[in-house]
Design a protein that fits this description.
alpha+beta, Serine Threonine Protein Phosphatase 5, Tetratricopeptide repeat, Immunoglobulin-like
């Protein structure tokens, strides 16, 4: 996307015209002009997910009333390399995925077949979740088969679709309570040849760790022991990132970091205690090892952002790793940009920055943010 373009703008008039043309090919009697007019109504005031939902509901009014027939029409609209319509890919196929999510719950097998096709064009990770809630055993049976699918996008869906805390999606409380069914799937994907899939496995474990930290430590410890190659160790590190931020002793031990390091914070200085939104927070630290042997450290920092209510909201940022010998001292500098982003709104006032070493707070400083 070009600078200044938002994701919601992917669902614009051009996209609606394209859906209308595809619908006219796939659905006997569909009036493309009427479809475009209805799909365009109120679109400008909607955010992205509302646009996706609105387009799916517009499709429902224009496709066949019989759901299996409507699915076949959707598949024609999605296009193919051999058909008259070019393949529809990426975010623009999301309304078709949402159609399955919203209207297909009473048709498990037809919907699972459709989601398998759609996930190769975009992702069905959101669409599959209501099916996991309504038909857990039936969906899990499909997912175990799909873990061996030749298409890596389908194998990724097995992991990404079962993440208990998938961003932008409804949670899966049954898997938050008992992750065993998910872990059984991840066992089949942990050595997948595609990084695309292994990254999803790591993210899934990171989700599970927020509810079952000791279970995840046990899993990654076993995986690291059974297959101590670089690909497994990358997965283990990525899966353990929240636990490391929290200073979980088991996760630190698996990754070779020193639990409860013995350190002296000799300096923690900000270049300025006043920062303007759009500017930078510069700081440096000096650490002195007080241990008799080597210490392996993961050094992060946490910024406590001011909220509209006046309360502070903490966010951990990754920094670096270091190994210090007995008595060794290290000085480090960092520049943290405080620029407007779509996922956070900044408020003026006092903020805090906190130094973390192996998850343990070592010092805090205050700064004032102007917006």
């Amino acid at each position: 996307m070009s600078t200044g373009t938002q994701f919601k703008d992917l669902f614009n008039r051009e996209a609606i015209l394209d859906l209308g043309k595809r619908g006219a090919v796939a659905v006997p009697g569909l009036n493309a002009q009427v479809f475009v007019r209805e799909a365009s109504q109120g679109l400008e005031s909607m955010e992205m997910k509302d646009r996706v939902r609105h387009l799916a509901r517009t499709l429902r009014r224009h496709l066949a009333e019989d759901y299996p027939t409507a699915l076949r029409q959707l598949e024609v609209m999605a296009g193919s390399e051999q058909g008259h319509l070019t393949p529809l890919r990426g975010f623009r196929i999301w309304p078709l995925c949402h159609f399955v999510e919203e209207y297909g719950l009473d048709h498990l097998h037809d919907s699972m077949r459709a989601m398998r096709m759609l996930t190769t064009r975009f992702t069905s990770e959101f669409a599959i979740r209501p099916f996991l809630l309504r038909h857990p055993e039936g969906v899990l049976e499909y997912l175990h088969r799909w873990s061996q699918d030749p298409d890596e996008a389908v194998r990724r869906l097995v992991s990404e679709g079962t993440r208990p805390r998938l961003p932008w999606a409804q949670r899966l409380p049954a898997f938050q309570k008992d992750p065993a069914p998910v872990l059984a799937l991840l066992e089949k994907l942990k050595a997948d040849p595609a990084l695309f899939v292994r990254r999803s496995v790591a993210n899934n474990l990171n989700d599970i760790a927020k509810d079952h930290p000791d279970t995840v430590v046990s899993v990654v410890r076993r995986w690291a022991s059974e297959s101590p190659g670089p690909e497994t160790l990358w997965l283990v590190r990525h899966a353990s990132r929240t636990l490391v931020k929290q200073g979980h002793p088991g996760a630190l031990d698996v990754l070779g970091f020193t639990p409860k390091p013995r350190l002296e914070l000799k300096a923690f200085k900000l270049s300025s205690k006043a920062v303007q939104l759009g500017g930078e927070l510069q700081f440096h630290i000096e650490l002195h090892s007080k241990a008799r042997g080597d210490q392996k450290l993961v050094i992060d920092y946490r910024i406590h952002h001011r909220k509209a209510s006046g309360e502070l909201s903490p966010k951990v940022f990754k920094w670096t790793t270091r190994q210090l010998a007995a008595g060794e001292q290290v000085a480090l500098k960092r520049v943290h940009k405080i620029h407007p982003i779509t996922t956070r709104r900044y408020y003026a006032g006092e903020h805090l920055i906190e130094l973390l070493v192996n998850g343990e707070p070592l010092g805090t400083r205050e700064f004032m943010l102007s917006v």
